[in-house]
């Protein structure tokens, strides 16, 4: 793990309405996410940062030791007597998901106007500027008052206003449908190669997306699959603890497990989101791992493309979020998207969350006319 020190971030400066605990807690949660939920590692980094940048010096009678004691008192960490170490609690797991959600929404709010949708309140209907003639059963709340009035005036006079049924105009709406989603997270070793931490942003997105669905879209389902040499399902509560391993990348099995999972979901709309650095490097063949880390092995690639076609036949869209810049890897992602008729985003680590949230909301809506 590489840790980069830089100039003090003004986000952590003390404000009149922010307690010492809350100020340090924000930094601790960031470190905890990077440390995959290991409290001791996060506290070591926090202590190093405090010694270097004098974080707690701005507060009177408050130290890292006081912060740790308050973490225990508030129920964020506890001692695991079996392992003899401090561990985070369910309360902290929920806190990390909420923080990831806030962080991504803050970044969306800073983007260019109209680039991202940020109103994720879970409303069933959203009015559009386009209008049409009123039909029996339309909600009167969606009436276009200006268009209706203009129609009425065409056959009215100053003495008498005549409103006809044909005058009524209503706004088209987007209706939020229920969606079953499987989020695939690449945990292969390449996700931390060359000192670039790609897994932390991926975990943040997974935590934020799960928190959004749990709180705003209760009728949706979210399953999470991690993949390296093999693919396996991950519970939402386990997201903070995900670590990159000495793995190759079994993209084929990840898509296969996602497809099997979605088969059991009784939803009309099904989708796969995959966060990866692109290169599939292994498959399971006759119960053994066939691997090739050098370039793109067509034997492996073809297995992945076959699985993408199967997903397409089952009406499962694959949206790939590619977080590597290699042109030949991007070419593979384009080939995958073509086979599935899905989509691909070539995202930086900074805007990964924005792309996923924009796509998730868009995939949940259909035009109601």
UniProtKB/TrEMBL annotation:
**Annotated region Disordered: where?**
113-132
Q: Which Gene3D superfamilies match?
A: von Willebrand factor, type A domain (3.40.50.410)
CDD domains in the cross-refs: vWFA
Q: Which Pfam families match?
A: VWA_2 (PF13519)
Q: Which SUPFAM superfamilies does this entry report, sorted A to Z?
A: vWA-like
Q: Which domain of life is it from?
A: Bacteria
Q: Which residues form the VWFA domain?
A: 181-279
What name goes with this protein? VWFA domain-containing protein
